[in-house]
Amino acid sequence: MNGRQSSAWWLPVEGLVGVSAALLMTWTARFVHVDPMVRVGQVSGLAGLQLVLLLAMGGTVGLLLLVMRRWPVLPLQFGAAIFAGLSSGVLAAAVSLALRGTPWPLGGQGGDAGVLQGWAFNIIHGQPIDDTYPPLFPHLLGWYTRHFTDGDPGHALKIVSLVFIALLGPTAYVAWRLILPPLWALGIGVTASLPLADPYKPYTTIVLVGLLPVLAKLLQLIQRSQLLGRRRAAVLGAVVGAVLGLLFLLYSGWFVWSAAGLVLMGVVLLVRQWRTHGTPALVTALLLVGSAGAVFVSVSGFYLTRFLSSAGGAVDRYCYFDVYTEPSYFTMWGGDMPGGLGLGAWPQPGEIGGVGLFAVVLLVGAAAALVVGPRNSVVLATAAAAASAFLMRYWYASHMWKDQAVMLYPRTNQQLLYCFVVLTGLALFLGVERLLERRHRTVPREHPERPGRTPRRYALASLCALGLLIGMAGSSTGSRYMPEPAARIDSTGNLAHTAQVLRGLNGVCSPYADAAQCVDPVPPAVFDQAAKIRKDQENQQKPEYRVLSCQEGGSPYPHAPKPTPTTTKGAGRPETLLEALVRG
């Protein structure tokens, strides 16, 4: 279970193994032949994917059982990487099954999916896009549209999104392997990522699960600066800064929620290094941080400048389900649909003063992590990120009525849940490490091998338990994204249903959809026209005080106030796709 340092050179290979397992699991969805528009077909398809998953995991465990008799550590690294890939590969396969027969992504051309397709179209035609949104994903989508889907941004978004869904597990595993052994990286990092899976915008959660361990690694390097040479510190800082820069370009939201706590924690650790190890250690630590900062700015500076300059003027008024819920509840993410779960029953009243036992377990786990690892860099980084998210969450929520702005504060649900699950896992990890160290000190000298005699049994049992959890989580999340009738406008299942009933650009509808229900898509060239129409409407909006209304829905950040309807023209008829796109 140990061997972090000796096995670090294998980390890129582990990542490649995990990605391969994820993509192969996603690819197996093509061999599950069901009608995704019928509930019985959906259940049968999910069961078929679980069967494939069970066989893959069983084969992996059986192979490990044989190979680990000779090599006790290295095979476990690859086994854990395979399980990490399968954890998100099964969800990607379920989403692929939900979109069987249609070239469109979840949501078709509506909402965030439509905005991303419009940006991809603009990119490949040399037109500007929103310069306050992280540019990496839109440009990646534009590149794929140009080279692989013959100018069809919808089909490109479907494929790219499936790949990002599949990459969630391997990303979490590789990031946490920077600081944890294989099984613990799987049990803590990958398990904590399971409730965050968001097939609609998967690139956002990939940044969250990767950001926290990378920042923890940076704090760890600061704490060990007295052991680093200055050249090595500069190189390691540059690598960390480059990774952080790429994550920032992919999605910047988590940086906003985490910045205050982690910057303060970094300053505290620098002062501690100076007091404990003197000026040379402080100089090395500053060189590390300076190198990371310089490379971060060089990678993301062009976007960072626009992001900071527009921060004061960008106002988000998009109200979705979690905006209405009790603000201290964070133990489950309700999603960013306008509603649908039933506010009267969400969150469920808990057993202790309205707080559920799951939340109590997380709080106890967080407290235990702080007790067992008060100087551990991972504990400190996670606790700082959680504290910062709480502070920002309550600040924006308390000012929501006064400022008439939501500012996406409910999305801190994801970060808080992730941090507290990680802290609970770290408490268990640090407790087990202490127990093993104490046991090792008390073992008689004539039996020095005894503490290491049975790791294979524990490792394989842990893999089996984690495999069942992975399969259940993937099936449950995938089931929520299976197509549902259009009457359920607020359900996540409507996203796949919308894609199924939207004809392709060639005029062909999905073979699983009712031809009478199919609608024509908006030609890609119209996206830019629709965006200009919407921008003109926003510019005509009078800057007078207006009461925030969550009943109107909205579009992704940044979002300006929508014009108040002044006419009933067209009432009683369904809106066209162009009208829906312009409306947001």
Give a structural overview.
With 584 residues, this protein is mainly α. The chain has 18 helices and no strands. Helix 3 packs parallel to helix 7, helix 8 packs across helix 10 (253-310) and helix 17 (524-540) crosses helix 18. The protein is globular and about 75 Å long.
Give the SSE map.
Blueprint: H1 11-27, H2 39-67, H3 74-98, H4 111-124, H5 136-148, H6 153-176, H7 182-193, H8 202-223, H9 230-250, H10 253-310, H11 357-372, H12 377-398, H13 400-403, H14 412-442, H15 455-480, H16 493-500, H17 524-540, H18 577-583
Helix content: 55-70%
Structural class: mainly alpha
Total strand count, please?
0
The number of helices is 18
Largest sheet: none
In percent terms, what proportion of residues is strand?
under 5%
| Oligomer category | single chain
Cα radius of gyration in angstroms: 25 Å
Distance between the termini: 51 Å
Runs in which pLDDT lies below 50 for 5 or more consecutive residues are 1-6, 446-454, 534-546, 551-584
Summed over residues and divided by their number, the pLDDT gives a mean of 84
- The dominant shape is globular
> Which series of helices and strands comes N to C?
HHHHHHHHHHHHHHHHHH
